[in-house]
Each structure stands twice: as structure tokens, then as C-alpha cells.
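# nightly structure sweep
# worker-07 picked up a monomer target from the shared queue
# config: single-sequence mode, recycle default, output format = C-alpha cells
# input follows
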Amino acid sequence: MLKGYLIQFFLSTYLLLWVDCQLEENPMICIKTTPAKLRPKPRRYDINDLGYFEMFHGWVDVQGQGAANDYCRLVGVAPNIQLSCALAGTHGQNENNYVSDKKDFPIGHTNTWYMKDEDGDGRDDYCRCFGQSGRQQVICTKAGPRGFYGSVGQGGSTLTFTPTGNLECQKRQVRPEFGRVYGGVID
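# output follows
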């Protein structure tokens, strides 16, 4: 008998475990497996361009597979800096196979950028602070099925949406791997 169990780990990430229990023959035999189609695609470790160290770079989930196995970073030379991801499960292929617009990609204020699923669609969006004192706001670039919004492959606008609970943001540092404010206010 095949039964599915939903297991929670890392706060809000879930993994579906399938347990094959043969109760008729021996009630103590259970084999825990995850079908291949449900397993997250593996991370790539053949990436040469790791991006700008002083800008956003990290493991995220832009494919919506439930695991942060896509490596995203800012690459290129100004004014042609773009957000680019090496997708999990694409070892040996182009390492820029999920991108934003190439021209004048708005990166936002220093140390305010992060990637997190802010719109609840299962894909991590690129968010950052824009504006001057008193008129600041976090604006996100939505991750879509064919790239970031604003890219040739996906279309739409690069500055896609403002997340709920938006606060003055320019003087707040954000932990890019969690999308949470830390350390209070920068002077």
C-alpha cells in the first residue's frame, strides 16, 4: 500500500515522502522513497560566473520545485547588468539559462536586495528598495515560467509588484538568503 506523507522542514518548505508499506506480508516493513518526478532537480556546481560578490548572489527557487537549488546572481558590465540564474538540473548547459532584461536592470539600493516568494506562486522573486528618503518602497521583479518578468523570454515589466507590508526600506539591511530585515537601521 503506497501512502503519502507531507513533511515540513526549513520553516516553510515541504517534502512529500511516499512510504511503501506491505502490511499484509509483514507490518514492520516500510520503504521510504520519493518518486523521481517529485524529487527536486540537483544543484549545478559547474558555474564559472559566480556574479558580483558585493551584489545579490545565492541559492534560490525560481523554478518553483520546492528546493533552493537554482543559483542566481547579478552578472555583466554596467549598463548591461542583469539578474541571471543557473537552473537546477541543467548541468553542462548554458549557466545563464534564466535571466532578466539585459539593459539597465534596476538592482536597487545596496544591501536591500533579496529573493523570496513574495507573491505566493512558489517561485522566488527578486526584490529591492528604490526611492529617496520618505518615498522609498520595495519593488519586486517576478519570477515567471520562462525567466524574470521584463526579459525577452517572459515579457512584461521588470518592476512587477510591491509586496504587502512595505515599509521605509533604504536604511534597512536585509538578509538576502531569507528576505528578512536584520541589524536594524543603517546610519
